[in-house]
Amino acid sequence: MKRKFADLFAVPPRTWGARGEPFLWEDIRLHAINNKIPLPDCIEFLGEQLNTLFEDFTGHSPKEHEWFYVDKYAHGGMSSGHIDPAGWREGGEIFEYIRQNFIRIAMLNDVLGH
Asked: Distance between CA 105 and CA 108 in Å, rounded?
């Protein structure tokens, strides 16, 4: 079975930088499923794809330095709806989590001959 981009989001990270991020994660996962987004060919393309999706869903760049608020990710609580872009850019915790998922899937595809 050929793996898809959504497979990178099958299991969310245990921790988040801000309270809006689990909802952003779920939006990206559902978008990838509904649009049958293929897994990129290499890690460089993965970064580009993540940056594009992040910007599409938040209206912000992951290169920004300050937390920002996205109304659709506000579901109650003081910091609800906030996103910390630092976690989503290269080197950030969420980005690295996704990157590790990509490496595991790529290795599995190699082993299975996909």
From this structure: 5
Q: Answer yes or no: is pLDDT of 113 > 60.
A: no
Residue 88, token pair as written in the block: 């989503």
Measure the CA–CA gap between 40 and 74, rounded to whole angstroms. 31
Angstrom distance (rounded) from CA 49 to CA 52 = 5
Range(s) of the domain holding residue 14: 5-112
Which residues, in sequence order, are bridge partners of residue 38? Answer: 4
On the question of pLDDT at 28 being above 70, the answer is: yes
Closest among 74, 76, 92 to 84, alpha carbons compared: 92
DSSP sequence for 4-64 = BGGGGGSS--S--SSTTHHHHHHHHHHHHHHTTPBPPSSHHHHHHHHHHHHHHHHSS-TT-
Domain count, the chain: 1
Percentage of residues in the chain having pLDDT higher than 90: 78
